[in-house]
């Protein structure tokens, strides 16, 4: 993948820079052997065309607009009055994004209305959060009693009676302080009702609370790596994952959060910048409209780390044509403070696998030694990639990332290194999208992320795993039997079932710099379209555990076929009987039905059971095994992030 597209200004900038170099300078650059040298060389010469780089930080609050925000709020108020809660929420979300930070009162009033909508949608925690924010923005004191009463009733619904009593007390306090224009008799009646209600809730707190389950806190993420997965290395394969014990289909072997993740521009307004979840209740940066968040936690995570440096620059980076590779390379830096990289600087050249394997996924040293293939790219490619690193380093300087506020060659070198690490190790983060429920789905990339453990899985054109995503979390399941000691392979794009070997190898050589030698390539397995369905590949049943394929033509009347490897005669009739008694077609149809009705775990178990029987009798490649794998892939994808444009039957 390239670091920029041809449509942005960086492409032209790179061309102009290249024209300034003499033949001698090009030869000097080509002779350099390290990324440190390459970055220093280009960084020294980039000033020749610095005026051709329209890189600038947008002005604070660019995109914010009070007039437009109030227009969306009015539309939300109409929808609220009409009981159209979903429409109102969308309008209020848009208004909140556009409201300038200095318009605190307008934000407070807007959040009050959005809180009412969220309550109607039974999003109690989100409604409480909006009430707290409205109070924080300076909600009018003479109207605060309304907010505190709403908070009290929400806590009462949640059976958090202690908090409900505290909020009712606040309600009474503000009603006494600010009578809100009620006639004295009505005010006295209201206060009396609230005091009685407070006493009732307090009684519940004292006498019922002890019988209730304690409130459940937010469950922290638990990473998972199956004990049967072992990481090994060799000269030819590099580092790779293999099975320490036999793995069966449908085993969850890995669940991992990314080291870093970045959204594609087209999803920056619909998905959370921090966790990639679809936005229901919008939170945002107070200074720009380039990113949105799904919760206060994600907003805090983003604005206190990477976005404080990227704010105001995302627009110009998108305009430059910088691809997701470049944006993710930058994010790896901006999510940590500059001092962090300075502290580990001396360790980077001496890192070993035994040391980095013990580190958490968010540690930069964990991903530093991932493959870069810097020695396999042409000098012209290296020149463009290095120039991109200088542009990203300029962003860091302009954002005052380092304490000195100057360009830092060490950070520039890391950016160049990151570009290569991301290009060969990052994964697309996908979401299953449908226009209507029960329609065929499309798996669509919404961003990219770097997963330190997943990155070590090597490629096969006949992969043994499938990956799917919930937000930025990746889940990995097996989709075939994997023998102990065998490589656990994923797929980098081309599958043998869809693409001929020559095309697959060309694609992998171009994009990943290696020639594939997986079983499907070594034996030149046919694509599904070219498989001979009249020939069955039975597994040899010889006493020496040969397990080699024994080919049987369905048009043959023979009941036994000799194995060409060990000479054992396989009883074909008995093998066919096993398949018939297993009722493969019936089981496959049952699995498909379970998938159609949304019982994905049960469908996975059915598909896996069919595959276990087939694996005992047959040797791949064969179409039925692939169909079961496809069924498992569909189930897994639908267990991940999904989006339906029109959830109801209305178009």
UniProtKB/TrEMBL annotation:
Ion transport keyword on record: no
Matches recorded under InterPro entries: SET-MYND_domain_protein, SET_dom_sf, SMYD4_SET, TPR-like_helical_dom_sf
Domain of life: Eukaryota
Signal peptide: none
Recorded GO MF terms: histone deacetylase binding; methyltransferase activity
Presence of keyword Endoplasmic reticulum: no
Keywords: Methyltransferase, S-adenosyl-L-methionine, Transferase
GO BP terms in the entry: compound eye photoreceptor development; methylation
Cited Gene3D superfamilies: 1.10.220.160, 6.10.140.2220, SET domain, Tetratricopeptide repeat domain
A single cellular component GO annotation: nucleus
PANTHER family: SET AND MYND DOMAIN-CONTAINING PROTEIN 4 (PTHR46165)
Name of the protein described by the UniProt record: SET domain-containing protein
